[in-house]
Fold this protein.
Amino acid sequence: MRDKRGDSEFAENFREITMDELREFLEADLFGATADPKFKEELRQTLWDLLQSRTARADVDGTGS
Amino acid sequence: MSRACSPQPVAVALADEALVEAVRNAEESAFRLLYERYFQRVYTFSFLRLRNHADTEEAVQETFASVFRSIDSYRGESSLVSWIYGIARNTVNNQLRRVNAQHQRMARARNELLRTSIAMSPGTPEDELNLQRSLDQIRDCLASLSDWQAEVFALRHLENLPIGEIARRMSRSHDSVRSSLYRVKSLLIKAVDPSDSNAGWCLDRGPGCRAAARGGANRGGGER
């Protein structure tokens, strides 16, 4: 299922990530920017559908892991 | 403390690579675990930079879509957290660029509107009042748009780009761009002619639609 876009995102994402940035990211759930629970649930459902359809497509293509 | 005493579910103990492998196989418990583990981090990280919930929701949606779309490219060369952080950071930076560009376009559009209204210089105080009312309504209408809708409108009508080019730049489908343009046009028509009952439909029904609808209320306002 690997694609070129995924590979380029992968390479892009590793540029210059510092420990301070990572620490801030890890600690971000300690601060209270409260998400709308409805948004969170709808997004979860959308992503799960996306993941399932990708997996099903990969199975059909014979490219699944 | 022995491992047997741990009250945490087994899935929590999954190493990054095992978790990713389970997600690749569309195991729902692994998917939920990854989502729950990172949702608040991505949300707060995005909110601290974007400062409003509508833009944050778009960034979070885009980040997780990228994560699951490119999950196969995760090779375990770095920790999962840094991989996801990298995606979130890029997404938020892109969103910030879009928001800034959109604010600049809005400022240009406002100035243009002001110049036009001065040039028209209505004759009577009543004409002036009506013109001012229309301008206010158009301004409110523009402020109610989500950033991406406003940008689509600006790219089409201020920069005269074709639909295909706008769709490519915004990473949206042609239909999505057309729907957005239709909606914005309808809102503008309704702003200047409230009797038009066909205006103002929301055609985009994804989670981002609510973000779009709330965009104006949240923009620049910080917390809900």
Remarks:
- The two ends of chain A are 8 Å apart (CA to CA).
- Residues 1-6 of chain A have pLDDT under 50 and may be disordered.
